[in-house]
Write a structure and sequence with these properties.
227 residues, mainly alpha, MetI-like fold, 0% strand, elongated
């Protein structure tokens, strides 16, 4: 084999790599925050007393979990466009990622809610806490704390899955790499570089989420661990 590795050929393209990383971070942060809110609301609805809401949320979760993310992205980007509504690629990417991650977050938080012992609810009622206080302090916050490691892993997977949005021309890291390798014909070197960048982003995201966990959960802050 006469192939000569040349990573130096990629040096002039570092601004494009940087822009791709920056957009990947933006997509991940926006989708993580909005997806967490959506998933929490769905989990509350799924464990609530309304049969209609439970069925609606259950249907949404099953549809999302049983269809590929790429199909969901295409439906948002191309499907809505057929109705005469043009949505920018980056916005479509965020919407699709939020809808996708919301279903998975919903199931994770629902598991946390259902793990709360009924004895704790009875104790809270005996203390005279209002229903809002009970749900916030006795159910929701402890539930999220219990499943926080699973949520962290899911959000890191979301960041990695954002690479699929390159299929609708969202200019994130993988899209930048595709363009660079087509210009340089250095496919191996290009994808090695973005592989390293994705590993770095994964570690940074875990560190950031670990910091959030230490900030939000007092008990874990005392223990010195958010996971």
């Amino acid at each position: 084999m006469g192939y000569q590795f040349d990573f130096g050929a990629l040096l002039p393209y570092w601004p494009q790599f940087a822009l791709g990383v920056w957009l990947t971070i933006q997509l991940s942060v926006a989708s993580t925050i909005a997806g967490f809110v959506l998933g929490t609301l769905c989990a509350i609805g799924r464990t609530g007393s309304s049969p209609l809401v439970r069925k609606i949320v259950g249907g949404y979760v099953e549809i999302i979990r049983n269809t590929p993310l790429l199909v969901q992205i295409f439906l948002i980007y191309f499907g809505i466009a057929t109705l005469g509504i043009r949505i920018p690629a980056n916005v479509s990417a965020v919407i699709a990622l939020v809808i996708n991650i919301g279903a998975y977050v919903s199931e994770i938080i629902r598991a946390g809610i259902e793990s709360i012992p009924k004895s704790q609810l009875e104790a809270a009622e005996c203390l005279g806490l209002s229903p809002t206080q009970i749900y916030r302090h006795v159910i929701l916050q402890p539930a999220v704390e219990r499943v926080y490691p699973a949520l962290t892993s899911q959000f890191v997977l979301l960041m990695l899955a954002s690479s699929i949005t390159s299929q609708i021309s969202a200019e994130e890291l993988t899209a930048a790499a595709n363009r660079i390798q087509s210009d340089t014909f250095r496919s191996f070197e290009t994808y090695v570089v973005i592989g390293i960048l994705y590993i770095a982003l994964s570690y940074l995201m875990r560190m950031a989420l670990n910091g959030v966990g230490l900030l939000v959960f007092k008990r874990r802050r005392k223990l010195g661990t958010a996971l």
